[in-house]
Each structure stands twice: as C-alpha cells, then as structure tokens.
Amino acid sequence: MRRLFARALARPLVLAAAATAIPLGSAAHASADSIVVGGFPVEVSDSPWTVALSSRDRFGGTRAGQFCGGVAVGRTTVLTAAHCLGEQVLGSTPDQVDDLKVITGRTDLLTDQGQEVPVRSVWVNPEHDDVSNAGDFAVLTLSEALPAGSVIGMAGEGDPAYTPDTGALVYGWGDTSGAGDYANGLRAARVRVLSDAACEQAYPGNDDGRYLSATMLCAGQDAGGRDACQGDSGGPLVGGGRLIGLVSWGSGCGRPGSPGVYTRVSSVLRTLGWDTAAARQREGS
Ligand code: ARG
C-alpha cells in the first residue's frame, strides 16, 4: 500500500499508538495495516512544541479540524511536512484554506484547552517531490507568538542524536490502528533510529518510496509494532532532547521490516540556510 498521499485525504494523519488495546506481544506479530503502534498517552506539557494543524473547514469540527502534526521551532515558526499542505490533502492550495491554524497546548482535541493560532503564511519546500517523498517539509509563520518555552531546538548535522540505535519519541494525534482510528489525545511511541543501510534495505525504491539518506532518516523497531501513522505527518521525532525528524511516510504502519521514514531535520536546516547556532537561538526565542 502506498504510504502517503492517497490516504491522507480520506484519513488525516498522525501518530500511532494502540498500546492500550493491544498487548505488545501481539503488536509485534501484527502484519498489515490492521495493527499499529505501541504508543502511550502523553500530556502536551511533556512536549509543548508538538502542535496540531487544523482546518475545520476542510476536515470537520469533531477533532478540532486536526489533520497533521507540526513542531514549533520558534515562537512564530512551525515546521511540518510539505505533503500536509499538498492538494491531495487539502483539496486546494494552502492559501485557499481560510481557517488554517496551529493548535498549541491542547492534549485532548475534544477540549478547548490551549490556544488556536492562525497561520499567517505558508512556505512549502519547492523541492518537495511527491514521488520519491524527498524534501518533505514546510514552514508556517504564525500570526501570534506561541508561549515561551514551547519551542524545541533542532539537531544539526553530526549531532549524536542521529547515531543509529539512539532512542527517540514520535508524537501525534494520528491513527492508532492503521484503520482510521484517530486519537483524540496526544500520544507518543518510542522507536530507535536505524542505520542508513537498514533504511535503504527496507525501502530500496518501489511503490512505497525510496529511502534517501541525505534528506531522510528512518526509525522503528526490528519487530515493528511501534510507529507513526496517518495523521501524524509533520509531527516531531525527538532524540536526545532535540528535533531530529518530521513524520513523513512509511509502508503501512508498524509493520516489521517497514520502519517509519522521517524528514531529516539537519537537511532542513541546510536547505533553509539556518545554521545550528541560529537553531539554538531559535530555541530560546
Ligand atoms: N504520510 C502519513 C501521513 O500523511 C504519515 C505516515 C507515517 N507512516 C509511518 N508508517 N510512519 O500522515
């Protein structure tokens, strides 16, 4: 099954986490899309830079219009996935979505906790290629500053958090089952950064996409069972306390041998010309 865009329309995206319903043992044996990802509930205060992208106009009001994740890297700057703002997801160009917002400080989408901040402008990476999935990132500029302390630093090239086997957490409100069971509450799943060789072996370039080490990173577990899923796209993968990835694509969710693929944040920094000193400063800003 192709991982990204086609499903995104019918099912907005986010993270995975069926831990409560499914004992880990069986998740590990889960094959197809039917069972996702050993996640667990978290409070947004544990990860205050994790935001939800919302448009009630396009996605309905039940879950506050959530359709993707995002990450605050500055008080008015949010990173997300380029494909979240593609026509296949929004049904139009982003500038035609009048009520595009970022929701901050809200663990449970069914509450009115936190704040909804309108997006002032959208920049989608012009190099994003929806065949290879390369360059899957976009920058949102907000119309008001997020609360201080709700931004995360980004890991630049050579940061030890990219080393294979590093533990990382992925966060989102996405599908917890691979069958369209979107979470109301924020969840996280614990995964490991995999080596480029392992990622290339998993995705040598077929229908499911091709792993490109310069701009992507992959993470999961050998047995599968923990992963991001539809609706999590654009959300953070955090290792060593820094942002290392943005949820981008994968073949199914949580399948053994099919790790989650993320946009490599060091390549985002390079493309945007943000050096890591600036990245560090952004953290404080
Ligand atoms: N592309 C998906 C989305 O639009 C995210 C999928 C991530 N998949 C994965 N198995 N990690 O929400």
UniProtKB/TrEMBL annotation:
- By its UniProt entry, which SUPFAM superfamilies does this protein fall under? Trypsin-like serine proteases
UniProt-listed Pfam families: Trypsin
Q: Where is the signal peptide?
A: 1-30
Q: Which family does it belong to?
A: Belongs to the peptidase S1 family.
What is the name of the protein in this document? Answer: Serine protease
Its Gene Ontology molecular function terms? peptidase activity
Record organism: Streptomyces olivaceus
Q: Keywords of this protein's UniProt record, alphabetized?
A: Disulfide bond, Hydrolase, Protease, Serine protease, Signal
Extract the coiled-coil ranges from the record: none
Residue ranges of the TM segments: none
Q: Which GO terms describe its biological process?
A: proteolysis
Please verify whether the record's keywords include Protease: yes
The UniProt entry, under Gene3D superfamilies, shows: Trypsin-like serine proteases
Q: Establish whether keyword Signal is in the entry.
A: yes
Q: Which residues form the Peptidase S1 domain?
A: 36-280
User: InterPro entries from the xrefs?
Assistant: Peptidase_S1, Peptidase_S1_PA, Peptidase_S1_PA_chymotrypsin, Peptidase_S1A, Trypsin_dom, TRYPSIN_HIS, TRYPSIN_SER
